[in-house]
């Protein structure tokens, strides 16, 4: 009797335990959320896929996330337990488990995630890959040399300029970037800067080479120019009157004859000081390579202008020329070199082993030679008619607002400045005379003026709001 009672009790307990387990575990992902407490599962409300819209290029991938939301306000990530699909598998594919989508062809595809009885969706836009074109390579397509033909005397120099043409039709001066050679170094030599110097009478070819491109210019060397010194005017000697011997007949006294008074002639100094500017005389600004002038500025040049390359042509009054032809400029270039040689051959009245600041000095006509630089601070006064030649083995520099005053017959066209190195005229300075630069730059500061003078350079000239009158 007791055995039956205990057996019935055990069977009932076992049945209740099984019912509790089945009620707790459910058999679905949406039920049995709290098996310990035995609470009923919250109802699945929706599935959301993020991001809602995404864009990728063909071949690229996008990870989507599936989130389940429940009626009790909770949510959880169900990405790995959802079933994923693409509405347009030819445009984009997606891993069935995991939500990783990959773009295949340009277009738009709906990506869905199914969990329980709910489905969420997002949109994947696939764009085509944009080809990247390599940058265009600009190369040198041509090379030219100016002047194409030139003539110099023995001992004089001719500046050649190399101009490159590129594949984009642009051009540039590359004189210092090419290799220069002379066809006959016995006739003429050429420096790395393109300056050729005559050695002996004859003809040669000057060649510029850059990579596989080359160009030539013809050079004729003529005999050296021999300039005769000005004639020496002998002093006027009054005639010798033989004494009158009176007859010995006293008391007759012979008449006294006085010699005539002779006034020696006045010899005027040549207007260019005897240096001889030749065909360069008509130019107020002359450069062998380039003239650089500020755009929209107030530069005014009263005289001829000459250079093969000019970024902004300076303003000129009517009646004056702007020459760019290498052939037309070869003559003035040649005469500039001769003028420098003539100036350097003048004997020095003042010879110094150092440089000098001419500010505050009053000087008379003569040849002033300095082994250092010449500078000017303040005012220089030149007094008296005659040539003034200032030679420097270094630079010529005038400070801002410096001036040159001419008194007692001194004339600007008799003043010559011959530096070996570069010339710089300070801003708002008032300069007078002709600068003869055989192979270096001449640079004018803002507002500097050159009245009754010239800027003649064997290289380049830079201007900025200047007034220049030859």
The geometry reads as elongated
- Mean of all residue-level pLDDT scores: 85
Helix/strand class? mainly beta
Largest sheet: 11 strands, parallel
Radius of gyration: 50 Å
Q: Percent helix among the residues?
A: under 10%
> What is the CA-CA span between the terminal residues?
148 Å
Number of domains: 3
The stretches of 5 or more residues where confidence is low (pLDDT under 50) are 1-37, 261-269
User: How much strand?
Assistant: 35-45%
Number of helices: 2
Total beta strand runs? 42
Describe this structure in words.
The structure is a single chain. The chain is mainly beta and 470 residues long. It has 3 domains: 44-127, Sandwich (Immunoglobulin-like); 140-222, Sandwich (Immunoglobulin-like); 278-469, no CATH class. It has 2 helices and 42 strands. A hairpin with a 2-residue loop joins strand 9 (107-115) and strand 10 (118-127). It is elongated and about 180 Å long.
Write the layout of secondary structure elements.
Layout: H1 2-25, E1 44-50, E2 53-57, E3 61-63, E4 65-70, E5 75-77, E6 83-86, E7 92-94, E8 100-103, E9 107-115, E10 118-127, E11 140-146, E12 149-153, E13 157-159, E14 161-166, E15 171-173, E16 179-182, E17 188-190, E18 195-198, E19 202-210, E20 213-222, E21 283-287, E22 290-293, E23 300-302, E24 304-306, E25 309-310, E26 322-323, H2 326-344, E27 350-352, E28 356-357, E29 362-363, E30 366-370, E31 374-376, E32 379-383, E33 388-392, E34 396-398, E35 403-407, E36 415-419, E37 423-425, E38 430-437, E39 442-444, E40 449-457, E41 461-463, E42 467-469
Parallel strand pairs: 2-10, 12-20, 21-24, 21-40, 22-25, 22-41, 23-42, 24-26, 27-30, 28-31, 29-32, 30-33, 31-34, 32-35, 33-36, 34-37, 36-38, 37-39, 38-40, 39-41, 40-42
Antiparallel strand pairs: 1-4, 3-8, 4-5, 6-9, 7-8, 9-10, 11-14, 13-18, 14-15, 16-19, 17-18, 19-20
């Amino acid at each position: 009797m007791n055995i039956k009672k205990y057996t019935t009790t055990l069977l009932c307990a076992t049945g209740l335990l099984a019912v509790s387990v089945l009620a707790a575990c459910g058999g679905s992902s949406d039920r049995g959320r709290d098996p310990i407490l035995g609470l009923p599962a919250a109802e699945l409300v929706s599935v959301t896929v993020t991001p809602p819209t995404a864009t990728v290029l063909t071949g690229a991938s996008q990870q989507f996330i599936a989130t389940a939301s429940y009626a009790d306000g909770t949510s959880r990530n169900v990405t790995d337990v959802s079933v994923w699909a693409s509405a347009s598998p030819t445009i984009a594919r997606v891993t069935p488990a995991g939500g990783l989508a990959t773009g295949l062809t340009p277009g738009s595809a709906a990506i869905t995630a199914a969990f329980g009885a709910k489905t969420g969706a997002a949109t994947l836009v696939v764009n085509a890959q944009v080809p990247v074109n390599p940058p265009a390579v600009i190369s040198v397509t041509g090379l030219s040399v100016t002047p194409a033909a030139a003539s110099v005397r023995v001992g004089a120099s001719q500046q050649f300029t190399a101009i490159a043409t590129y594949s984009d039709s642009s051009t540039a001066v590359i004189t210092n970037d090419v290799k220069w050679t002379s066809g006959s170094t016995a006739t003429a030599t050429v420096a790395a800067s393109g300056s050729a110097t005559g050695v002996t009478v004859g003809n040669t070819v000057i060649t510029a080479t850059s990579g596989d491109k080359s160009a030539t210019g013809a050079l004729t060397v003529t005999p050296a120019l021999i300039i005769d010194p000005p004639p020496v005017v002998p002093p006027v000697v009054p005639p010798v009157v033989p004494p009158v011997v009176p007859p010995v007949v006293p008391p007759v006294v012979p008449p006294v004859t006085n010699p005539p008074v002779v006034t020696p002639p006045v010899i005027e100094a040549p207007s260019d000081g005897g240096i001889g500017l030749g065909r360069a005389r008509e130019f107020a600004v002359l450069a062998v390579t380039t003239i650089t002038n500020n755009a929209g500025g107030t530069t005014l040049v009263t005289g001829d202008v000459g250079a093969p390359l000019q970024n902004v042509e300076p303003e000129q009054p009517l009646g004056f020329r702007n020459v760019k032809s290498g052939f037309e400029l070869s003559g003035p270039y040649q005469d500039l070199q001769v003028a420098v040689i003539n100036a350097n051959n003048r004997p020095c009245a003042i010879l110094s082993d150092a440089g000098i600041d001419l500010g505050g000095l009053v000087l008379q006509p003569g040849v002033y030679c300095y082994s250092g630089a010449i500078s000017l601070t303040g005012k220089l006064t030149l007094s008296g008619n005659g040539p003034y030649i200032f030679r420097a083995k270094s630079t010529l520099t005038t400070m801002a607002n410096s001036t040159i005053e001419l008194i007692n017959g001194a004339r600007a066209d008799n003043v010559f400045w011959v530096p070996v190195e570069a010339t710089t005229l300070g801003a708002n300075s008032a300069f007078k005379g002709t600068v003869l630069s055989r192979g270096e730059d001449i640079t004018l500061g803002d507002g500097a003026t050159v009245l009754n003078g010239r800027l003649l350079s064997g290289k380049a000239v830079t201007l900025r709001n200047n007034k220049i009158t030859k």
